Amino acid sequence: MQETVNMIRQKIDEAELVLVGIGEKFSVFEQKELKSEDENRQKPIERAYQNLARFLEGKNYFVITTCVDDLICHAGLKQDRIVRPLAEAEKGAAVENGDGAERGAPAESGEGEAKGQEKPSAWETYLKWLQGTLHKKLLVLELGVGLKYPAVIRFPFEKTVYFNQSADFIRVHDKLFQLPAELNGRGISVKADAPLLLAEAEI
Fold first, then answer.
1. What does the domain layout of the chain look like in residue ranges?
2. Which entry of 15, 83, 95, 156 is 20 to 30 Å from 24 by CA?
């Protein structure tokens, strides 16, 4: 397990930009497989986030998550580099779910909803950052992302790697770790429980 963590850290260190996707495996509301001595599912997830924040120190990164809890906001990650479209869904426009239906739009918490607002929403900032990753040495790191909302992280990440020939892709999931054939071996699939992998990492 530590060997896998070391590989991920090396890829992060080598990248110019890092795009991280956090899936439902990190949700305290949905995660039922995490085991902890204190029987608190929240503890290993918190440690996983804290270790991820350490890995990303000094890097130009963005993190997108489908989790609706706020644990990620207290892990030491840059707040302006986190986008939570489902958590902010009630405040704005539309995000597709796994059935192609739509949920309410991502908008930055505490910001106005007027179109003419001076400060862009977190979602707009994320999309602008993502546009700037083309032709850059980008690491796309997908952690615990399933198929509940594939249009938010899973499919866009695959598309990003497909069009950016300079990108590396790492997908970590205990069941849905497979990579699409279209990536032609340009990615690494890791069969592991993503929160536990990071939580138990030796820093």
1. 2-199
2. 15
Instruction: Specify the pTM.
Output: 0.83
Residue 151 burial (CB count, 10 A) = 14
Residue with tokens 């644990």: 71
Counting beta carbons within 10 angstroms of the beta carbon of residue 101, is it exposed (0 to 12), middle (13 to 18) or buried (19 or more)? exposed
* DSSP, res 126: H
- Chain centroid to Cα 78, Å, comes to 14
Q: Identity (one letter) of the amino acid at 57? A: E
Give the E-state strand segments of the chain in sequence order: 17-22, 60-65, 82-83, 92-96, 102-105, 138-143, 168-173, 187-191
- Superfamily (CATH) of domain 2-199: TPP-binding domain (3.40.50.1220)
- The sign of the CA dihedral 116, 89, 158, 121 is positive
Between CA 26 and CA 139 the distance in angstroms is 20
Q: What is the CA radius of gyration of the chain?
A: 16
CA distance linking residue 98 with residue 146, whole number of Å: 10
Residue 91 binned pLDDT confidence (cut-offs 50, 70, 90): low
Cβ count near 80 (within 10 Å): 10
For 32-58, what is each residue's pLDDT tens digit? Answer: 554 444 446 788 999 999 999 999 999
The answer to whether the beta carbons of residues 21 and 157 sit under 8 Å apart is yes
